[in-house]
C-alpha cells in the first residue's frame, strides 16, 4: 500500500525513471507539454503500457506557435485540369508545317507549268480560245452582223472637207449617205470610203436629193455585204434601236436607244441655203456629228432609218452635241429615193399640188391652202384655196412644214385621206399624190 500512486509496471518491474510526484509521467523527447494534450498521448513513454501490446496509437500535436499550414487534401480519383499551352503549341506547329508544304508544292507546280520570275500569268492553252459568240438577237449579235456594212465617208473638195457615215445598199458597191455629207465634194463628186476593217476605197457621187437630204455614192469595190432593210412603217414608239456610224470621226461606233417619236416633221438647213423636209424617226440613241448617213437599226438588225440631224442647245452647229434628240429619215423613203437615183440619176419629189400657209398658232389648227394647182392632186380630191387641212392619214397638222414633210414621206401615186375644214364644216377626201414636174 502506497500513498495512492502505484508506479510499478504490470510485470512488476520498476521503470528507469520515476514519474513526477502527484501526476502522470512527464512527457519525454519533445512530447506534448502539460495541459496541451492528454497525459496518455505519449503512449511510447507510458510507464503503464504493456510492452507486449502489438500496436499503439500515436497522436502528434504541433506546438501552438509552430504556424504550420495543413497539407492540402487531394482526391487521387479527380481528373486533372486541362492545360491549353501544349494544345496551342501543337496547333501552331501543324499550321506552320501545312503552310510550308502548300507553298513548296505551289512553287513546284508553278515552275513545272512555266510560271517563274518574268513568266506569263495564267494557264497557257494549247490553242487560243475562240472569240465568245453572242446570241444573234442580242445587241452585241446585231452589232457584229451590221458593222461590216457600215462605212465612214470622207470628202475633200473645193468647198471644204467633211466626215460622215454611210451603209452598203447593194453588193456591187452602192452606198447610202446624207446629201450634206457629200455636199463638199462639189462638181468632182469624189469621196473616200473607209470600211470597218480599216481598208479604204475610192467612191464617186452617183446622185443626191438635197430636199430629202439623201445621196448615193458608188464604191470601186465589189463583193460587199449589204444591209438588210426593214419597214419604217412597222416600227412603234418604244422599240429598241441601234445607231451606227463615225461620230466625231470615231469609226465603228454603236449606240443604243429607243424610238422616241414617229413622223416628227423636220425642216433643216442653213439660213439662205438648202431647206430639207422629212417626217423623221426620233430616237434617244446618242448621235453626234459624223453619225450623219449611218444606219438606224432595229432589234433584228434591219435598217429602219438614216441618221441625219440632231437637236442641240448650241447656237453654232459645229459645237452641237448629243442631248438625246436625234432624227433619222425613214428607210421606206430612203429606199425609194435611192432607187430613183440609181435608175435615173435623180429623185422624184412627192407633191399634193397646193401652196400652204399656217392657219393659226393654236395646236391642231391645221394649215391653210393659199393656192391649189389646177389639175393637181389636191384639186382632183375636191380641195379649194382657203380650205384648212387638219389631218393627213390621221396625223394632225400645225404648221405648213408638217404638210410638206408628211407628203414627202409617201411615194408618188399613194392615196391619202385628207381631213379639212371649209367654213365651219369638217370634211374628208381621198387625194392621190403625184411626183413634181422637175
Keywords:
Pdz3 Domain; hydrolase; elongated; Peptidase_S1_PA_chymotrypsin; 6 helices; six-stranded antiparallel beta barrel; 438 residues; six-stranded antiparallel barrel; alpha+beta; serine-type endopeptidase activity; Peptidase_S1C; Thrombin, subunit H; 21 strands
How would you describe this structure to a colleague?
There is one protein chain. This protein is an alpha+beta fold and 438 residues long. Among the domains are: 135-347, Beta Barrel (Thrombin, subunit H), CATH 2.40.10.120; 350-435, Pdz3 Domain, CATH 2.30.42. Helices cover 16% and strands 30% of the residues. It has six helices and 21 strands. The strands form four sheets. The chain has a six-stranded antiparallel beta barrel. A six-stranded antiparallel barrel has the order 8-9-10-13-12-11. Strands 15, 16, 17, 18, 19 and 20 form a six-stranded antiparallel β-sheet that branches. Strand 4 and strand 5 form a beta hairpin. It starts with 83 loop residues before the first helix and ends with a strand. Mean pLDDT is 82; it is low at 28-35. InterPro entries: PDZ (IPR001478), PDZ_sf (IPR036034), Peptidase_S1_PA (IPR009003), Peptidase_S1_PA_chymotrypsin (IPR043504), Peptidase_S1C (IPR001940). This is Putative serine protease PepD. GO terms for molecular function: serine-type endopeptidase activity. The chain crosses the membrane at residues 87-110. Residues 66-77 have a biased composition (Low complexity).
Amino acid at each position: 500500500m502506497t500513498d495512492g500512486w502505484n508506479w510499478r509496471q504490470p510485470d512488476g518491474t520498476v521503470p528507469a525513471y520515476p514519474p513526477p510526484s502527484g501526476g502522470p509521467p512527464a512527457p519525454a523527447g519533445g512530447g506534448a507539454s502539460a495541459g496541451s494534450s492528454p497525459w496518455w498521448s505519449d503512449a511510447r513513454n507510458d510507464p503503464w503500457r504493456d510492452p507486449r501490446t502489438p500496436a499503439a496509437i500515436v497522436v502528434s500535436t504541433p506546438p501552438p506557435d509552430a504556424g504550420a499550414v495543413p497539407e492540402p487534401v487531394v482526391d487521387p480519383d479527380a481528373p486533372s485540369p486541362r492545360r491549353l499551352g501544349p494544345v496551342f503549341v501543337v496547333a501552331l506547329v501543324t499550321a506552320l508545317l501545312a503552310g510550308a508544304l502548300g507553298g513548296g508544292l505551289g512553287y513546284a507546280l508553278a515552275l513545272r507549268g512555266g510560271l517563274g520570275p518574268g513568266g506569263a500569268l495564267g494557264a497557257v492553252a494549247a490553242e487560243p480560245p475562240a472569240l465568245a459568240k453572242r446570241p444573234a438577237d442580242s445587241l452585241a449579235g446585231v452589232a457584229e452582223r451590221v458593222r461590216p456594212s457600215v462605212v465612214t465617208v470622207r470628202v475633200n473638195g473645193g468647198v471644204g472637207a467633211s466626215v460622215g457615215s454611210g451603209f452598203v445598199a447593194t453588193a456591187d458597191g452602192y452606198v447610202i449617205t446624207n446629201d450634206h455629207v457629200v455636199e463638199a465634194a462639189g462638181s468632182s463628186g469624189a469621196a473616200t470610203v473607209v470600211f470597218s476593217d480599216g481598208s479604204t476605197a475610192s467612191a464617186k457621187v452617183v446622185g443626191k436629193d438635197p430636199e430629202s437630204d439623201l445621196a448615193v455614192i458608188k464604191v470601186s469595190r465589189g463583193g460587199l455585204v449589204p444591209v438588210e432593210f426593214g419597214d419604217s412603217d412597222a416600227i412603234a414608239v418604244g422599240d429598241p434601236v441601234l445607231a451606227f456610224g463615225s461620230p466625231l470621226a470615231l469609226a465603228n461606233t454603236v449606240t443604243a436607244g429607243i424610238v422616241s417619236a414617229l413622223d416628227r416633221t423636220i425642216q433643216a438647213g442653213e439660213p439662205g441655203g438648202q431647206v430639207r423636209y422629212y417626217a423623221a424617226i426620233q430616237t434617244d440613241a446618242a448621235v453626234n456629228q459624223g453619225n450623219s448617213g449611218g444606219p438606224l437599226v432595229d432589234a433584228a438588225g434591219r435598217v429602219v432609218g438614216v441618221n441625219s440631224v440632231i437637236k442641240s442647245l448650241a447656237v453654232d452647229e459645229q459645237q452641237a452635241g448629243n442631248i438625246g434628240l436625234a432624227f433619222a429619215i425613214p428607210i421606206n423613203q430612203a429606199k425609194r429615193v435611192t432607187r430613183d437615183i440609181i435608175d435615173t440619176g435623180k429623185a422624184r419629189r412627192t407633191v399634193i399640188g397646193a401652196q400652204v400657209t399656217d392657219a393659226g398658232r393654236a395646236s391642231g389648227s391645221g394649215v391653210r391652202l393659199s393656192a391649189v394647182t389646177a389639175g393637181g392632186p389636191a384639186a382632183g380630191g375636191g380641195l379649194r384655196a382657203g380650205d384648212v387641212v387638219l389631218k393627213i392619214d390621221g396625223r394632225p397638222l400645225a404648221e405648213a412644214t408638217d404638210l410638206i414633210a408628211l407628203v414627202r414621206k409617201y411615194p408618188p401615186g399613194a392615196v391619202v385621206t385628207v381631213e379639212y375644214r371649209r367654213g365651219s364644216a369638217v370634211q374628208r377626201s381621198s387625194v392621190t399624190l403625184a411626183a413634181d414636174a422637175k
